[in-house]
Amino acid sequence: MKDKLYGVTHHCECRAVFRAGFRFNTVTIDHGNGFKSIYVHLKQILVSQGDWVTSDHQIGVAGFAGLPGPADVHLHFQVVKDGLPFDPYGWTGSGPDPYTGATGIANRRLWPTSIIQFTGRFLRGVAYGNGVLWAVHSQAGGDADVVRMSKVDGHTGELLQESADFNWNGRGITIGADTLWVADALADVIHRVDPATLIPINSFNTPGTEPNGLAFDGTSLWLTDPFFQRTYQLNLAGQVTGGFAIPNAFRTGLEWESTGMWMTTGNTELSHYLPNGTITATRTLQGLPPGTFVYDIALGNGKVYISAGDRVFIQDW
Q1: What angle do CA 206, 210, 211 make, to 5 degrees?
Q2: CATH of residue 252
Q3: Which SS3 state, helix, strand or coil, does residue 249 take?
Q4: What percent of the chain has pLDDT over 90?
Q5: What percent of the chain is helix, strand and coil (3-state, nearest 5)?
Q6: Strand, coil or helix: what is 12?
Q7: Distance (Å, rounded) from C-alpha 303 to C-alpha 174?
């Protein structure tokens, strides 16, 4: 029913009920790190002070307790950080942000997202590390040989940093050895990029031509080359140390996991390859819009980040 209330807990992590009852039938949930969510004017409270709740735990029923005269079902909901009002979507008001005014710290979006939109852009490659999603993209319908890199919060989709334009045909991107690595099919090179500044450091030539997907296995880079129908293993200086043959079609995306790598092998199909070229598993990504072509994927924090057109879809892995 629409008047049932569930606390705003994320990923079913347990949180303590800080206060239940109080004025106007109020429940306050302590989320830790100074965050509390507050629910006011409840018809019925279904938790007690000190209870621990999860995201599927009903905490009450919406009502109009404390409101003057007859009223429709009403909920006053608020998030505070260290006792001060905090906008969980990030401050979007026309006036100054009261939380920033009091603390000097900007509000940031707290809610997780399932789609990250890159409006007007076409995504070429994605990589994930330490809560950050890295993306390389060009202008949709524009020059594919001019790209930018973006650093995005992998939880909320908030844009954290964006590079200048580079005259690259950027394809795959991966992060490893404290470096971003970007495949450039225009110059047939791999660029080393400083992840803190998004400024290129240097580059090296790739074997073959048309480099696409990139992955890092902890010590080596792996690179797909659909034109020459090869996947190459490279050391960090660009020298070939291994590899195997692949069919030409679709092999644009690459991501390392465990003892091998996931490669795009169809519009929404992925295959897991061992370093000797043996396929050990195949899976089809579900829940995507009809006609989706998956260009690249990234794995991290139990999620798969799927680049397709101007969007990154985030799903449980």
Answers
A1: 50
A2: 2.130.10.10
A3: coil
A4: 58
A5: 0, 50, 50
A6: coil
A7: 16
